[in-house]
Amino acid sequence: MIDDLYNKIGQILVVSCPDDAVKIVTGIQIAKEDDAVSYYFNYFDNKNNKKEFKPVSKARDDIFYTMLELKKYFIDNNLTNGKPIWAGCIVEIDIKNSKINFEFKYERFIPLFEGDDLKD
């Protein structure tokens, strides 16, 4: 189940990125109320140039709802070990080698809106 959710997020990102991408680095952060999300979408081409991209809104929505499923899975299966749930993650995808890595973040790391200074 958890691998299915990881793979779904990876597939959405790979399908959404530009054709010249060899690596994707995306930050996904969910608000504490689970009602908002902030993202950044970057990729690297075969010359290692870092570029931004913006998936269509349906892809962004699909990522958001899949992340909510993933968050629920972590909570329902006690994968937090009694600690607070993560706030989001950084997803790195090595397209050439078909590898994906999720680095979970427990503090806010992306502004939720313009001018947000990340202070709670």
How does this structure look, described?
The protein has 120 residues and is α+β, with helices and mostly antiparallel strands. The protein has a single domain (2-105), classed as BH3703-like domains (Murine Class I Major Histocompatibility Complex, H2-DB, Chain A, domain 1), CATH 3.30.500. 29% of the residues lie in helices and 30% in strands. β1 and β2 (37-45) form a beta hairpin. α1 (2-16) packs antiparallel against α2 (57-76).
Topology:
Layout (H helix, E strand, L loop, with lengths): L1 H15 L4 E10 L6 E9 L4 E3 L4 H20 L11 E7 L4 E7 L15
Antiparallel strand pairs: 1-2, 1-4, 2-3, 4-5
Q: What number is the mean pLDDT? A: 90
Distance between the termini: 33 Å
**Highest-level CATH class:** Alpha Beta
Strand content: 25-35%
Arrangement of strands in the largest sheet = 3-2-1-4-5
Largest sheet: 5 strands, antiparallel
Extended strand count: 5
**Class by alpha and beta content:** alpha+beta
Number of domain units: 1
Rg (C-alpha, Å): 14 Å
Unreliable segments of 5+ consecutive residues: none
CATH topology: Murine Class I Major Histocompatibility Complex, H2-DB, Chain A, domain 1
